[in-house]
Amino acid sequence: MERSNPAAGGGEREEQPNTKRGKSQTFAERLRPVLFEVQPELSINDWLQHEDIPQMPNAVVFANGRFQGLFPKTDAEHGIGGHPGLIFRLMMVALLLGTNNIAISYSIKQDDEKNPLDPSSKEGMIRSLIEPMKEEIVALLTSRGFGETEVREKLNALNIKLFPLTNLFSTVAAVGKSFPGQKRLVMVTGLEKDKQGKDYNKYATTFKTLSGFTGVDFVLNSRQSSSTISGTEIREAVLNNYYDELGRYLLEANLTDENIIRNYGNLIYAMKMKIEGQASQTEEGYANTLLDNMILAAFEKLDRLKELELKAQEGSLNEDEQQELAYLQSKEVRLREFAVLKGDSAAGGGSSAGGRSAEYEERGEEGGKKRKQKTRKQKSKRSKKSRKGRKIKTRKIKSTHTKRKNR
Hints:
Blueprint: H1 27-38, E1 59-64, E2 72-73, H2 82-97, E3 101-107, H3 119-143, H4 148-156, E4 159-165, H5 168-178, E5 184-190, E6 192-193, E7 199-200, E8 215-221, H6 231-239, H7 243-252, H8 258-276, H9 283-314, H10 319-342, H11 358-373, H12 376-380, H13 384-388
Parallel strand pairs: 1-3, 1-5, 3-4, 5-8
Antiparallel strand pairs: 6-7
Helix pairs in contact: 1-2, 2-3, 3-4, 3-10, 7-9, 8-9, 9-10, 9-11
């Protein structure tokens, strides 16, 4: 029997209901509570919360994203936001529904501060976010008792394709042709607000006819979530030089690869040029400013891990802290490698995974204190001179672009 889906756009959904009664839980059954916990904005989708989770192996999970901001917000444990969070969410929804097919469209505009990157750079940047988001899912699910091998096998089976957005109908038609034999479109999209302030799905009546698919279902994202971050917020952070905030977002979302950090340096430069008509640093300079702040954030995370481990020895952890400890432990090796390899000078020449050097400890404590003392008001008033006075020594990122004079 077809379950009602108030967000459905028509057509008959073919499902494979779970008929296992009294047996061990399926992967989807174990995944669902984790998904709704870290992505609470999805909890409005009643059809995903039914006792029998619909398994839709012939569906394509699709997002029509303009991909303007591209910065994440927070980590998988607390719900990755922004466009990296959309990629994270698409993969989690695909795993939940038992399909390997994911399609992502992106705007090809390059007209203002909302779209500062050329289409080729934007596509490359989106592709670079896929593997880190997979690693975030691995870290999250293994911290919740899932087997790493099982999770990686499912993630490696995903078939993710990108499509330049011309118009929505032709893009969806291209998606249908690119995934032959797939019968259902599952569109992941955010709710909009009408003039009365009520939430609505702007695509609810868009797909009366759908080329290549039997129908469409919607996975709607409520905007009432701490992990939500808008393009406006990102532009504000860039305009006001909140680089410690932006660097923390990148670290927490596992966006630590040099090429990715360089891409974000290029993005900040492009946004500055579009918004202000000038930039105080080169693309390389912005990348290294982000790197400096990511290193400080890594020390903070490691300090928090040590604090929780001490509490665990004392037997004084509450349930939330136990989950946080498990999650940080799943990321410990990556955090230490990042702090040591990217910030070896700041870490006193490095540290083994088993323990910190005295300088490493001192650096972490000092970094944490400094960040806690900063306020947004102070950050917005930081001068170019004070930035040049930083004493953090890191292995700098070299730009792949021709160097420009600072503007």
